[in-house]
Structure formats: C-alpha cells, structure tokens
Amino acid sequence: MSFCVAIDGPAAAGKGTISRAVAAHFGFAHLDTGLLYRATGAKTFEGLSAIDAARSLQASDLDRDDLRSGDAGQAASRVAAIPEVREALVDFQRAFARRLGGAVLDGRDIGTVICPDAEVKLYVTASDEIRAGRRYRELQTAGEDITQTQVLADLRERDARDSARATAPLKPADDAHLIDTSDMSIEAAVAQAIALIAGKI
Ligand code: C5P
C-alpha cells in the first residue's frame, strides 16, 4: 500500500522537523526535496549548468557537507525557478511518493505538482521573524558568520522568488491543512500533524 503525506511551506517554518517526526511515528520513508535543489545548486558552483547538474544528480551528491549553508539555499532557489531543472527531478520524487509502505515528502510543490493526489497535505508556515530566528540559531550552531537581519533578508528574498516563479510556485494546495507554528511548540505541531494523518489512515 502506498500512502503519501505532502508537507509544503516556506523556509524554516518547521517542515523538516515535522516531516522527520511524522515519518518516524508511522514508519514512512522521508524525502527532503529541498536537498535535491540544494545539491543541484551546489553542483553549479563547480561550473556545471543548472540543467546538466539536475540531470546528472546522484545519491552521493546529497551527502555534501555544504548543502545546509545560506549560499546553497540561495543557489537552490535560483536553479529551482528553471522549468527543465524541476522536470529532471519529477520522476524520482513521484516514484518516492508512491513507494510501498508510505512516504513523507517535504518541499514547496509536493501537494500541488509532485503528488496532487496525496492522502494528506499539510502547509506549514510561521511569521517571517519567527522563521528567521529559528534559521539564525541553526546557522550559528553550524558555525556560519551571519546576523539575524541578514538571515531575515535572505529568507524573504528566497520566499519571494519561490512564490513568484511561473513553474510550481510556493503556495498551499486548495485541500491542504494549514499549520501555523509561530506560537506553537514543535511538540504541539508534530502532535497536530500526527492526529491529522492518523485520521486518514
Ligand atoms: O527546503 P529548503 O530550504 O532546503 O529548499 C531550498 C530551495 O529549494 C527553496 O528555497 C526552493 O527554491 C527550492 N525547492 C523547491 N521545491 C521543492 C523544495 C525546494 O523549489 N519541492
């Protein structure tokens, strides 16, 4: 049996944490689709065109240490606006979504484009300031030399680009459940997601 949980939303809203917790709870496989775009973007640093980078993406490209950096996030959002790049990554994501045993995919277009027939769709969001604060603490822990003001500007730029692009823009699917994590603990957000999914199984 396949069962797809689609989790979309802007950067640093809590999608990753919720996705991992939900996957562990239900024993589903998890794919962080942002990593595909980050790895594609990182390959362009070595001179490859974005389209060639996406078409030649290997599992080993997803293990690079530098994929979580702010630069990789910006590069990801630039290559993600190119239709041929997205097209090159569709089949892998759709096959993952329909693997036996259940799958959680998190990204920007999972409920709208990759898996429009997902059994459960969540759209996880939070205010810009809250998201910037969370991402700032993550980057600080990772040793990046950056201010919270820069992180906020970076998030806003990336969200604006992701929402404005013509192909697969960031937006909630019509049938997505909204979870706003601005004033919610991560435990409460995870519990809400688990309850929604349990009701559909
Ligand atoms: O989720 P994460 O911040 O790692 O995503 C990095 C970038 O990859 C996003 O800003 C977005 O441009 C792109 N992305 C996308 N579609 C997805 C996942 C990520 O366009 N499904």
UniProtKB/TrEMBL annotation:
Gene for this protein?
cmk
Q: Name its cellular compartments.
A: Cytoplasm
Quickly give the catalysed reaction: CMP + ATP = CDP + ADP; dCMP + ATP = dCDP + ADP
Name of the top EC class for this enzyme:
transferase
Listed A to Z, the keywords are: ATP-binding, Cytoplasm, Kinase, Nucleotide-binding, Transferase
Protein name as catalogued: Cytidylate kinase
Q: Which HAMAP family match?
A: Cytidyl_kinase_type1
Chief location bin: cytoplasm
* GO BP: pyrimidine nucleotide metabolic process
Q: Which residues bind ATP?
A: 9-17
The EC number of this protein is 2.7.4.25
InterPro entries in UniProt? Cytidylate_kin, Cytidylate_kinase_dom, P-loop_NTPase
Molecular function terms, GO-annotated: ATP binding; CMP kinase activity; dCMP kinase activity
Q: Mind naming one GO cellular-component term on file for this protein?
A: cytoplasm
Family as reported in the entry's similarity comment: Belongs to the cytidylate kinase family. Type 1 subfamily.
| Residues covered by the Cytidylate kinase domain | 5-41, 61-197
